Amino acid sequence: MAVAKMETRRSILDAARRIVVAKGYAAVGINEVLAAAGVPKGSFYHHFGSKDAFGEAMMKSYFDDYFATMDGIVADTGASAAEHLMRYWQYFYDTQAADDCQGGCLVVKLGAEISDLSEAMRIVTKAGTTEIVDRIERMIVRGVADGSVTIDGDPHATADSLYNLWIGASMIAKIHGSPGQLDRAMTVTRQVLHA
């Protein structure tokens, strides 16, 4: 794909993410996204075969960026795994507490909506959240190995439970417009990891 075409595609996906995180997927029209991206209306189908393909690409792009952030957190080789884990959870907290707890997580915003609307988007989201849990599990395993983390159960089950805790806390924080649930999630996370 030519550089200009890739940049245009990325501009569309970035604009879509900003709008969709505020309004939801079904409420956003293609023309609104193209206008926000500064892209001519007729060019959408040069980049995406359908709105469903566009939604799938938007979620893939979101997860690629999310994984890059996680990679950046664990790149600090001078930090313990417990420090990596707590930096990750602080990133999660900060992202979800932003804008009066309206957050920027497309999983929180779109999880239920896209599961009903688009099988392709559901599959991408399932794969993305599975990879997040796997990455958290790897941090936990490293923490147990370096002695900075102690858990009472299986690393995968612990990672899965903590991620689910944070997704739920983010939804309730969004409903209440207050980070109280995120504060409690942080406390529980520290207790579970003994970090």
UniProtKB/TrEMBL annotation:
Q: Which residues bind DNA?
A: 29-48
The keyword Kinase appears for this protein: no
Tell me a Gene Ontology molecular-function term this record carries: DNA binding
Keyword Cell membrane part of the UniProt annotation: no
Tell me where in this chain the HTH tetR-type domain is found.
6-66
Q: Which UniProt keywords apply?
A: DNA-binding, Transcription, Transcription regulation
Protein name per UniProt: Transcriptional regulator, TetR family
Q: Which organism is it from?
A: Actinacidiphila glaucinigra
